[in-house]
Automatic annotation (TrEMBL):
Residues 2-29, 31-103 form the 2-oxoacid dehydrogenase acyltransferase catalytic domain. Keywords: Acyltransferase, Transferase. Its cofactor is (R)-lipoate. It holds the Pfam family 2-oxoacid_dh. This is 2-oxo acid dehydrogenase subunit E2. The lineage of its organism: Bacteria, Bacillati, Actinomycetota, Actinomycetes, Pseudonocardiales.
């Protein structure tokens, strides 16, 4: 085994600056992608930058009237995650955002 576990950082803005709490052994939980959002500042879209040891980061912008009109992008380290898999992830996410009841099907 190359690594004993996957750890995920969650960037959180605080009054004293950016804080990144870490979810340890995230590979044993259903979510393993870092998520960043600047929508609360009115930002429609932005390129999220991967920090060292991150596999991917999903960037959400502001909702444009309705939640399903939100822009989002993914930045993936191609040494860890194949670009085609990242694109498939975005396609699946788009489908779930457009049809949220599929989550419980």
């Amino acid at each position: 085994m190359l690594h004993e576990g996957i750890h995920v950082g969650i960037a959180v803005s605080s009054p004293s600056g950016l804080v990144v709490p870490v979810v340890r052994v995230a590979d044993r939980s259903p979510v393993t992608v870092t998520v960043s959002s600047l929508g609360m500042f009115g930002v429609d879209q932005f390129p999220a930058i991967i920090n060292p040891r991150q596999g991917a980061i999903l960037a959400f912008g502001a909702a444009l009237g309705e939640p399903w009109r939100m822009r989002y992008t993914i930045t993936a380290d191609h040494r860890i995650i194949d670009g085609a898999l990242a694109a498939q992830f975005l396609a699946t996410l788009t489908g779930l955002l457009e049809h949220p009841l599929r989550v419980i099907e």
